Amino acid sequence: MAARAMTEPAFFILTALIDAPRHGYGIVGEVADLSGGRVRLKIGTLYGVLDRLVTDGLVELDREEPHQGRLRRYYRLTDRGLDVLTTEATRQAANAEAATQRLAAHRPATTGGL
Amino acid sequence: MSSLLEDRYRLVLRMLPSDYRQAWEEDMVASFMQAAYAAAPDDAEGVEIGRPSFAETASVAALALRVRLGGTGAAPRPFVWGEAVRRVALVGLLAHAIGALVGVVYSIWTFNQLDGVIPLTGGTPLFGSLWAALWSLTAVLWLPPYLSAVHGHHRAARILAVIAFIPVMIKSVIGMTDGPGAVTPTQVYWLLFAALPLFAMAAFGPDAPRVRARPWLIALPVGVVAVMAATAIVLAVQPHVDEERLLPLLILADRPSLWCAGLTGAAVVHLSIEHRRPRRMPVWPLALALLVPPVLILRVITLVHGLLFAGTADIALTVTIGAVQCAALIVTGAMLALVAARRLRDLRAAAEPAPGQTAPTVI
Fold it and tell me: What gap in Å lies between CA A18 and CA A14, rounded to an integer?
């Protein structure tokens, strides 16, 4: 598989599955919470990303449970998914740290100039 | 018993391929219905007679497009479809870019400003004022999206193509509203045909593989020379042809004819070499087959429009030329479609046991 940059929805979906397996709607709610309401996944978007994560082996089916006459599928993070998310989180943290340091160094000069 | 909302959502999901629906439909419906009830907890009955929102429908449509037109890492069949549609987009952008460059060269030529080149006595200037000249140069806006797409800047290419299309749209709308008669099907279809690469560029998603730039960069000057040669031949012959016989000559070298000739030629070349490469993915046969219907409609619609202005002596010859062009397109198009369909069927059979390349299934 060719290396692809992780999209924001994929990042949040993987993050939503760290602590517990979740079903589709549960993931939508958790992603909204994690992003402070900024990322509100549509169902089509969720399953497009979920399909890709399952195909890439980052997420897998945990169990199926009946709920109000329907079978709800719960998904969990795989070990590979955890590794990939860890790498991505580290990368993003390093990027953020670099930007924060530059901003901190730049801010006094800018503030003083005003 | 299912609710009206569920039935309507399942109808929306029919945009997805059947194997995809088999794997995901029930789960998608369950999540969608749960989200719908959660959005209006005190109005369950109202929810059940509602419709999926535009945003939800659009997300499914976008998913259907991504699933059917795959990029790197997709299953072989969607990958071939994705590649074929990406080729359609590139061919369309190439044609626009060639048309733009030919227009510039032709304009300069008609003003006898090419030193050492024979003056183009048969040609008429494309523009009569500075503003008209500048306006005609907006066609050159098609070059940046073409070069961006060829060099792998897909997002930039999509944005630049939309910008390049704006003058085309303005020109078409002015042409439709400024004339004495009503809007003609020819005008409307030309606009849709010009927009074809824009639609096809939807296949340039984040997973779209890089294009091999070199052949596409060579195709640009080659196309310009070929089209200029065809134009020059017609202009050289034109003074020696009776006015009554002019229309068949012009129809032989108009843009739909150039499309027919180019597409038929490419089809013949590919059909003649395809049998030597039976294991190759049928990207080009499929791309060329996809181009045949829009070009065929363009030929028919412009031919019918041209006949309205034909003298009685022209009609038989004009119709014969058009019929030959259409027949050649239909025959080669059918052969390309057969080759593509057979190879796609073989791909599905070969892909089924391949790990990591299967249709989406949840383990």
Answer: 7
| B115 class by beta-carbon count within 10 Å (0-12 exposed, 13-18 middle, 19+ buried) | exposed
Which class would CATH give A8-100?
Answer: mainly alpha
Taking CA–CA distances from B70, the nearest residue in chain A reads A52
**Residue spans of alpha helices (H) in chain B:** 4-13, 18-39, 44-48, 54-68, 76-110, 130-137, 143-150, 154-178, 185-200, 213-237, 246-252, 255-274, 283-307, 312-351
Sequence spans of domains, chain A: 8-100
B289 and B178 within one domain: no
* Model confidence pLDDT, tens digit, residues B140-195: 999 999 999 999 898 899 999 999 999 989 888 887 777 666 678 888 898 999 99
d(CA B158, CA B94): 14
CB-nearest to B32 from A4, A43, A71 is: A43
Supply the ipTM of this predicted assembly. Answer: 0.85
- Of the candidates A7, A51, A72, the beta carbon closest to that of B30 is on A72
CA B16 – CA B60 distance, rounded (Å):
8
SS3 call for B79:
helix
Window B:322-341, CB contacts with A under 8 Å = none
CA distance B156 to chain A (A): 18
**Cross-chain Cβ contact B72/A51 below 8 Å:** no
Q: Which of A25, A44, A54 sits opposite B360 (nearest CB)?
A: A54
- Contact between B362 and A47 using a beta-carbon 8 Å cutoff: no
Interchain CB distance below 8 Å, A44 and B61: yes
Tokens matching residue B161: 């193509």
Q: Would the CB atoms of A4 and B56 count as touching at under 8 Å?
A: no
- B115 and B17 both lie in a single domain: no
Tens-digit pLDDT profile for residues B105-142? 877 776 655 555 555 555 455 555 667 667 778 889 99
Task: Quote the pTM value.
Answer: 0.74
Q: Point out the residue among A2, A43, A60 whose CB comes nearest to the CB of B31.
A: A43
A32 touches chain B (CB under 8 A): no
Please, which residues bridge with residue A71 across strands? A66
User: Is residue B130 assigned to a domain?
Assistant: yes
